[in-house]
Amino acid sequence: MRTCLSRLAYVLLALGASGPPAGCEPSRDAAAPAAPSYEMLRRTAVVEVYQACKESVVNIGYVRKDASDPKVKHTEFASGVVLHPAGFILTNAHLLRKHDGQTDGRLMVGFHEDGEYRARLVAFDEQRDLAILKIDAPRRLKPIRLGRSQGLMVGERVVTMGNPFGMGLTVAEGIVSAIGRSTHSDYTTYPDMIQTDATTNPGSSGGPLLNVSGEMVGLNTTKKLKADNIAFAMPVDRIRESLPDVLAVEARQGVAVGLEVASLGPAEVTTVRDGSPAQQAGVQVGDVVRRVGGEDVRNGLDVHLALVGAEGGKPLPVRVLRDGGFRALTLTPRPVPLRPAAAAGDVEPGLERIAYEGTWEALPDVSTLQPAATDRVETFDFGPYAGRDGFALVFRGYVQVPADGVYAFYTESDDGSRLVIGDEEVVSNDGTHPARRRRGFVALKKGKHPIAVEYFETSGDEMLEVSWHGPGEVRRPIPASALFCEKP
């Protein structure tokens, strides 16, 4: 055994042993390979993941004023991941719950080794518990590598990174404990989550769940209180599919583009709407988008991020791959015209409320039903139907819009609800379900617009909240002062 200098011998040498084990003398006529360094022997997969991802994970701090005493300030901590080199950051929406997604405090994003930046909110979705922030850094950022959550194995090693209690970038490892778990918090309900035993704490949410290849497979979101090592992460495949709707670029910005791209893999065009700016630009189904404006495109999500801030009538250079070659196109988003205000007649404050009795699994066609009662109310309340089962309500009137712009309307209901402005369905929240919030966007001119809200309750708890936000406004219930109906 003249050449039995094994890895064990290297370890002993690295730890300070005086020589190889007895009986394992090195060969005299062949040079022994260089022993690995002590540092290399300690460089585990977790170390590799940390080194690869530390520039892509951020600390988030939000300083907010106390609702009862503006002089008192509170700091909320969370984590986030870099989605795009231009400064887009993904995190959980529940960080901003105190202000329903509107940041009237200081929202800051910090990097482990490279400073802190003021952030602004780009998009916010409470039901999905996802938010997109934007920072203007003086350099291109390193985005996290998005993996796949499909195919995750129970028992597979995973790594978490985040900002627990605002302490700064912190790493933990564990395993996938279960897949497809449903859970809930005081914020929302989370279906189909990844359960892990990796340590998480307040402030860890919004950080990445990573596989040992350094790919993000989930977003650390919540944990089971009063339990040890039971944490939950949102699967990255669901995030990929949800983010285009969370961003809602066309609806939110009041522009039409007219193309859809695949949410997984390269940004392959799957739909081009007839007569849309995309069709007029020459975009075809099957094209792979490689550049929009001044930004390279790696995947479908990059297309939506590149369109953030797109203006109607302002041309965007687009580069696509087709039939093995690149083509340069010019896409000009079209501004969506504002819906004109109605010529409302003689009106008074309040809404018309029409009640129907019955049991349904979805919103009924009230045109086929006989009303049980009709009256006038100040706002969207149940009146004598509170606490009852088996009824439907329709609220009709006008909503007064204070300024031109794009407005988001929300209905939160248990069971189903729908909101219509004029003849346009803006919010669909139908079906029998626990309380949940849905939203939609509509571009409106200043003035009064016809509004109709439908609601039904089969059994159990009932609730309905109708809210909005528009230019310069925080989300809040539509005030009674903005609701009108025609005088009888």
CATH topology of the largest domain: Thrombin, subunit H
CATH top-level class of the largest domain: Mainly Beta
**Whole-Å distance between the termini?**
106 Å
Helical amount among residues, as a percent range?
10-25%
Number of domains: 4
Shape assignment: globular
Question: What would the average pLDDT be, to the nearest integer?
Answer: 89
Strand content: 35-45%
Structural category = mainly beta
Q: State the total count of DSSP E strands.
A: 32
What is the number of helices? 7
The largest β sheet comes out as:
8 strands, antiparallel
Q: Which CATH architecture of the largest domain is right?
A: Beta Barrel
Fold topology:
Layout: H1 7-14, H2 38-42, H3 45-53, E1 57-65, E2 73-84, E3 88-91, E4 106-111, E5 116-125, E6 130-135, E7 157-162, E8 170-184, E9 189-196, E10 208-211, E11 216-223, E12 231-235, H4 236-247, H5 249-253, E13 255-256, E14 259-261, E15 269-272, H6 277-281, E16 288-292, E17 295-296, H7 300-306, E18 316-322, E19 325-331, E20 334-335, E21 347-349, E22 351-357, E23 373-377, E24 391-401, E25 405-414, E26 417-421, E27 424-429, E28 436-444, E29 447-457, E30 463-469, E31 476-477, E32 483-486
Antiparallel strand pairs: 1-2, 1-4, 2-3, 3-6, 4-5, 5-6, 7-8, 7-10, 8-9, 9-12, 10-11, 11-12, 13-20, 14-15, 16-17, 16-18, 18-19, 21-32, 22-23, 22-24, 24-29, 24-32, 25-28, 25-30, 26-27, 26-29, 30-31
